[in-house]
């Protein structure tokens, strides 16, 4: 599956294990908690990607998955002791979980369709994801052990990119039900549907700020992919990046002061970070491979 299909079709107690491994915690890094991301630097660039973790300044990148298959779309559990991710190691993309140090990799979904982009509920008891098992992509919710998989969007259009609100009550997502992809929010059971963007251009990859008052997202409204932020009700959309290259895949820092994102402004995709107002854009990775899908 190519990059566009993955994206468009396509956050304190850590416990004893975390104290030992250091994964997910701030450790000795003054810039804060670690960042997960996907990279094909570990193997054949045309064959596989892996889930990596690095310090918030881009140092200390470590391969967590170490598998010949494609491993992508990592997501921290709320207490940062576990990571959900997607892998096609069973022949199709499914949702997996592992400990924050890469051990204990376990398959949660096992469906001949594609299951992608996990998002944890704030209490860690559930995971949202999207799947094309019904012929089109829909938003599903399941328990954190993989049981109880339920279609909550249930629409003939394509519904993608679920993001759980910090209060656990709502899911933001992108959908093609209006022709172009727009961002909506709904209650976790699928009720209370609210449209948040209406631009006639594609708006995808919504992600809630840690306090729940804002959503960062990627938009093509200005003719290329850029990072925007808006209030949780869809008001006051503000462009944060302004670059002729592709800037997308935003992810909030746990304190809500910064955003990580991926960009190909330096020819290949790398992970960048910026302040929540768009200032201070800084490159974190510098590798000839593609580094994408950051999760802070």
Class derived from helix and strand content: mainly beta
How does the overall form come out from the CA principal axes? globular
Low-confidence stretches: 1-30
Q: How is the main sheet built?
A: 4 strands, antiparallel
Average per-residue pLDDT, rounded, comes to: 90
Question: Which quaternary structure do these chains form?
Answer: single chain
Spatial gap, N to C terminus: 24 Å
Helix amount: under 10%
Biggest sheet: strand arrangement: 3-2-1-24
Number of beta-strand segments = 24
Number of helices: 2
Radius of gyration: 17 Å
Strand-residue fraction?
A: 35-45%
Give the SSE string. HHEEEEEEEEEEEEEEEEEEEEEEEE
Q: What's the short version?
A:
This protein is mainly β and 296 residues long. Helices cover 4% and strands 43% of the residues.
Describe this structure in words.
The protein contains two helices and 24 strands. 48% of the residues are buried. The two termini are 24 Å apart. The protein has 296 residues and is mostly beta strands. The chain is globular. 4% of the residues lie in helices and 43% in strands. The longest helix has 7 residues. The N terminus is likely disordered. The strands form six sheets. It has a four-stranded antiparallel β-sheet with strand order 3-2-1-24, with no helix packed on it.
């Amino acid at each position: 599956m190519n990059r566009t299909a993955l994206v468009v079709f396509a956050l304190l107690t850590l416990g004893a294990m975390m104290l030992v491994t250091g994964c997910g915690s701030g450790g000795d890094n003054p810039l804060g908690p670690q960042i997960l991301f996907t990279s094909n630097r570990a193997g054949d660039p045309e064959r596989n990607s892996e889930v990596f973790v690095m310090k918030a300044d881009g140092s200390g990148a470590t391969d967590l998955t170490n598998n010949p298959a494609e491993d992508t779309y990592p997501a921290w559990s709320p207490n940062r002791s576990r990571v959900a991710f997607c892998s096609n190691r069973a022949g199709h993309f499914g949702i997996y979980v592992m400990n924050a140090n890469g051990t204990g990799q376990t398959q949660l979904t096992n469906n001949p369709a594609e299951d992608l982009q996990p998002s944890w509920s704030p209490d860690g008891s559930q995971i949202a994801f999207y799947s094309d098992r019904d012929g089109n992509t829909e938003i599903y919710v399941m328990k954190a052990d993989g049981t109880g998989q339920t279609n909550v969007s249930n629409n003939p259009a394509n519904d993608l990119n679920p993001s759980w609100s910090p209060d656990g009550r709502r899911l933001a997502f992108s959908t093609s039900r209006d022709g172009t992809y727009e961002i909506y929010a709904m209650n976790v059971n699928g009720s209370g549907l609210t449209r948040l963007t209406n631009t006639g251009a594609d708006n995808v990859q919504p992600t809630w700020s840690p306090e729940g008052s804002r959503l960062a997202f990627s938009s093509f409204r200005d003719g290329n992919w850029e990072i925007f932020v808006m209030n949780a009700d869809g008001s006051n959309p503000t462009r944060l990046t302004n670059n002729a290259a592709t800037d997308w895949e935003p992810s909030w820092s746990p304190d809500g002061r910064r955003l990580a994102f991926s960009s190909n402004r330096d020819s290949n995709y790398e992970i960048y970070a910026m302040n929540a107002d768009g200032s201070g854009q800084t490159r974190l990775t510098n590798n000839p491979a593609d580094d994408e899908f950051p999760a802070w």
